[in-house]
Amino acid sequence: MAVRPHLLFGDQLGPHFARDGAGGADGPDEDAPLVMIESRAVLRRRRFHRAKAHLVLSAMRHRAADLGDRVHYVRADTYREGLRTAGVGGGRRNATVHHPTSHAALGFVRDTPGLTVLPARGFLVSHEDFARWVAGREGGALRMEDFYRDVRRDHELLLDGDDQPAGGRWNYDHDNREPPPRGARVLGAPRPWLAEEDDIDAEVRHDLDRWERDGQVSFVGEDGPRLFPATRGEALAALRRFLDHRLPGFGAHEDAVLAEDPWMSHSLLSVPLNLGLLDPAECVEGAEQRYRDGSAPLPSVEGYVRQVAGWREYVWHLYWHFGDDYRAHNKLNHRRGLPEWFAELDADAVTARCLSSVLAQVRRTGWVHHIPRLMVLGSRALQSGWNPREVTDWFHRSFVDGYDWVMVPNVVGMSQYADGGRMTTKPYTSGGAYINRMSDYCGDCAYRPDVRVGERACPFTAGYWAFLDRHRERLERNHRMSRPVAGLDRLKDLPELLEQEQRRGSSPP
């Protein structure tokens, strides 16, 4: 039988995506030639962050350079045109491809004659194992905590004999919710690994400049130097830097935010993970080894393992389990379009220090960690009633680690509560008190977190109460929201607050 070429998508760039199936059906043929396609149409259809476009093209071209003569790298207008140029699929030479990471890509390869879809790689849990886990859920509840514990057991992660969790606890969340150190402007963590550009980056920047100048593409965000790994070697260096120097201090302040410290102790490894440059197993096993050898405390290690082996896996599988129509859910009937200042990352138009600072970091780097994403950007969108489909698309385009499978569950299900509670038990939004407790944003802000009405009224505090009032009937039936909703009746200034928020609308807060 002739050896079939194997197709690599732009987020399947690690060696595990090209490793053969050793005679089985789960990988490419032995010594299969590889095909990679760089499609201009992907950048033309949507306005991505400039840093994201640069990173993905740089990573693809670096991978092609590493593969040398084994790869046929095609630059084409569309993906279908690229397949024709490569001579695979569509009645030409048969080829294989690992399960893609979006519904659209999966539909495309399944509809292309001659392409055989192999099992997904780059995740700890297979689709079949997740389906079995779902089938075993009593009452159909798909709790992340239950899933996470089963992943730990199945992969023998942080266990101490007889399937018991290391340290006697499965969950160290309580230890990992400390506010930033009082008076500190930076956390003081060892610096993260950051990239140094090379000739391939210069070529990418030249091409992006030319395409933008010719009107073929348009971007948001700044064209700063590439910060994140674009090669397997860089990804491994970033992983080692985190595990050896930053993991010990990660846990306690993983939910804290400092305006002048964008990285804190976060790993920044979601970027190479989602490009396929790292395998999640090497990340969590490396973290566990640091606990076993005494170089990192258990709460920090468990917190990181939970992010990778718990939440990342959970989101990946819910994306497929919920189906492609999940992205259209809008149970709260939020219809407002994204305002221009938000869509364009215009941090300078915003007075609220938290939102201005976070938007500025997104504009500059295409990345902020999970708390600014959820409790500043997502919370502002939820309180303002913006269309969750537009919010999802914005997160996908604006973040260097944003992909369809990442953002649809995270935004529709968690951030915007657009599925009505199918994924999470309550809306994740708050007043300014939470932001004040977990960050240093409020001290120099023109607004006050404890003021609801008037010139100094915090947009998040007023927006929180207006959101609760707007959805009072739905939320008062939620056992986790009934008490906050009941608090509306104690607000003597509620009419003035609602009138104020109606006037504010979608103006920059």
Automatic annotation (TrEMBL):
From start to end residue, where is composition biased (Basic and acidic residues)?
171-180
User: Region Disordered: start and end of each range?
Assistant: 166-185
Pfam families tied to this protein: DPRP (PF04244)
SUPFAM superfamilies in the cross-refs: Cryptochrome/photolyase FAD-binding domain
Q: Matching PANTHER family, A to Z? A: SLR1343 PROTEIN (PTHR38657)
Protein known as: Cryptochrome/photolyase family protein
Q: Which organism is it from?
A: Streptomyces spiramenti
